[in-house]
Amino acid sequence: MLDKTITEGINAAILAAGEIIMNADRNTETVEEKTGHANFVTSYDKAVQEMLKKRLLEILPEAVFVGEEEDVHREIQKGYSFIVDPIDGTTNFIRDMHCSTVSIGLLLDAEPVYAAIYNPYLSELFTAQKGQGAFLNGQPIHVSGKPLSESIILFGTSPYYPELAKKSFELLINLFNRALDVRRFGSAAYDLCMVAAGRAELFFEMQLSPWDYAAGSLIVKEAGGQATQLDGTPLSYGHPLSVLARGGQDEKI
User: Fold this and answer.
1) What residue ranges do the domains of the chain occupy?
2) Beta partners for residue 121, in sequence order
């Protein structure tokens, strides 16, 4: 079990990141395109990441820091590592759509042991510690367990990988025809929290980077759900993968 000073320090850092997002000055914001379709970074992504890197490494100086906005990512197989998305849902942030999150996963020997995801627009802080359950603002959360016929399906379009679009929407149509309805929020970290909190029953995306799912996958698992690759194999956290999160339903997708 992690020392309380570590978990409290992570929570304080992520709340401070949310303050930066909420106080963003649209007149000074700059936007750059990264490699891949519809892949953007703003001056606020960079500012949040720089602040989190400083604060998190003060908490655990021996940890490796892996942030989305870094050019070079270090090995995470041994010891502690932070995997961080400073603003998950950058396009939402650019368009002022109020659905972006900050995501911090703490891993030990390449396995998540603590997770924090914060939606500053709703003041929702989702946390989980390995073996200790999942929480929303300190209150326990659990997946819903509803059958597929009563399920809300969340999905991502993997917009950086247009070659996956046809396969993504074929699966979505298949699920839509068997489920209650579908939603797309534009933040995979938030989607995973929605499954963990029982607000939706299933989330999938054909290709995500580790900072998109490292924290959320632990929150789903600690809430009683499953988080795997689409073919059911375990997640790893060193390279992009497909992600499937569900609330315990056994139906084949």
Assistant:
1) 4-140, 148-246
2) none
